[in-house]
Amino acid sequence: MFKLAMRLLLRRPGTSIATLVALAGGVMILMSLAVFVQSGLQFKPEPKQFAAADVVVAHRHITVSTKEFDGEVTTSEVPLPEGTVPVALADQIRALSGVTEVQVVGVRGDRATAIAIQAPSSVNERIDQLAEGAGVEAYAGDERGWAESSTAIEARSLLVEAGSAFGGYVVLLIVFVVAGTVGLSVRHRRRDLALLRAVAATPAQVRRLVVAEAAVVGLASAVIGVPAGLWATHWVHDEMVTRGFLPAGFPIVNPALGALVAVALTMLVAVLAARLAARRVARIRPAEALGEIAVEPPRGGRVRLAFGLLTLAGAVVSLFFAAALAGTAALAAAVGMLYLFVMAVALLAPWVNGFAARLLAPVLRTVWGVSGDLAVANLRANARGMSAVLSALVLSVGFGGSVWFLQDNLQRQTVAQSRDGMLADRVLTAPQGLSPAAVAKVRQIPGVEAATGVRRTSVVVRVFDGAEPAVARAADPAQLTSTMDLKVREGSLAGLTDGTIAASALQASSSGWKVGGTAEMWLADGTPVKSRVVAIYDRGLGFGDVLLPQSGGTYDEVLVRTQGTTDRQLAAVGTVTTADDLTGQLGRDLAISAWLNKLLITVMVGYAALAAGNTMVMAALARGRELALLRLAGVTRRQVRRMVNAEQVGLLGTALTVGAAIAGATLIAVVHALTGTFVPYIPPLGWVIVLGGTTALALVTTILPVSRLLRVPPVHAAGTKE
């Protein structure tokens, strides 16, 4: 069986290579993703600052409990960027028998960054009890490293979160591509398999042959995909270090397990797809095999139609959910909605192709004449056969036209909101921060109209399945409205005092907050608070999702509104930059932080384009007999080329229309959820690149293979397997 599988694969190099490329690409992407996620999950920081301590008490996360619909309670941990512990806890620990030394680190009033303890292990249980009673954590032994704030811990969270957010979608994409490519490859071997059935091969033997072919190609793809995955992992690691996402010494695990998982998953998908694709041929009775396979199968059964309509309904419903969600949840919902639409198109493709052929028939006949007539007949008769091509093209356009532009919209809106809402013209900073006294001094400078101290922070807010951090600003409310315009839509910032907050419309909608109502959250140090909402504003991307009052402590920057003649006096207090410089730096910072998202999106879009190209090459190479028979019947080579061109116009027109509609719906829903506008931003030449690139890809992957087939004499080609 293995020998026969090898011979069949070698006799069909076109489809074999296309399948090999799809599988190898899947192995490379999955392996690289698996290595980074595994590195994040297995990372354990070594204690450095607290290496001499036996136990460290700190507050690095909060545990949030959520009650599910079925009554079950689930818990999740959310990291705290500025967690603190009560200083009074140090005195309770000192009183324990056996404790030899307690030093308190980073004291700020009655709170501290951490408490380092030297004590025998027999005291650990009592320390745990005291820490738990204070709502903080105790770390001992190898766990002490988690008590420290480090770039390595932040990098670990980034790898795990990015892997969780995009990993599932990448896996689904690879499954979709591999299954479609392998299924189409088996479909093009129908004559070979039918011939085997005609000479008394059993259904089991046919299935084993198909599985053997898929396994051989899968093993070959591992030989290419694993080295490519190693290269991709090293390249991405170096780029992430260069851009500051990972510290240079962050450990990357041995890639062996990631390679094994990637190869096993792609081979499993390939084998299952091949087995499913061959089941119709395997079921045909030997005496009827060749006759059955000579006729194009019907468009699809009622089950496929029913599942397609249900999936389409689910995609439409998810469109409204995507518009109602916020932040990263909206982005994840958009990608999920995109998959639902693409799956619906894949299931309904035979009917979509048939309907499009009837709709475009007058145009194709008018423009291409006899060749157009042939193209319409082919499109209608081969509606099911071209389903994989339509699905791949729609997938490519859908991803390229929506997910890629989402990041551009976020960056553009963030910069625009920051620029439009900034009433100050100068920004004052200092290495150690600026005190309220410094702010008061700035306000006394002649020519200064207003000054507002601002501290960048975060809060933890509840979401559907737990909690997540939200960007926040703590600001001196005294002259706030003179230095920044948050575009308040409800309430007033005049009421921003202790015990109150203002929230962005996006965050208020997500959390169910109303003006005059109570907002429950955790501050960056883990302190739970219940604050009254006094205002809801629109410019959350530019100024944070939550605005807190702060009249004391240290500010990260002071926003200053001047008459343009105070730079010299301001320089005596701190470093002076213009508000335009601040906005420009924000844009540069966003571009750097968006690099990882764009990298992941590029991988997804690129793999979708690869699938489209692969599918179209395979479909074109499978038409050797068909084109030869047309030429033997009197159709000229020029008419055949015109027929293929007309078919491409019909198929591309359908794919681009459907794909653009899906991309547009996805983009509009998410951009509205994130920015409140129904008009998304499309970069210059953006759609030209997406649509033009897809068109060029389709033409190259079809015209070139067809030109090659037309160079073969029709008498020879009519008897070949292609």
How would you characterize this protein structure?
There is one protein chain. With 722 residues, the protein is an alpha+beta fold. The protein contains 25 helices and 17 strands. Strand 5 (101-108) and strand 6 (111-118) form a beta hairpin. Helix 5 (151-187) packs parallel to helix 12 (327-368) and helix 14 runs antiparallel to helix 24 (686-710). The model has no long low-confidence stretch (mean pLDDT 84).
Secondary-structure class:
alpha+beta
- The end-to-end span amounts to 22 Å
Q: In this structure, how is the largest beta sheet organized?
A: 6 strands, mixed, barrel
Beta content: 15-25%
Gyration radius (Cα, Å) is 31 Å
Measured as a percent range, the helix fraction is 55-70%
Strand order in space, largest sheet:
9-10-15-12-14-13
- Given as residue ranges, the uncertain stretches (5+ residues, pLDDT < 50) are none
Shape: elongated
Helix segment tally: 25
> Based on DSSP secondary structure assignment, what is the total number of beta strands?
17
Mean pLDDT figure: 84
List keywords for this structure.
alpha+beta; 25 helices; 6-stranded mixed beta barrel; 5-stranded antiparallel β-sheet; 722 residues
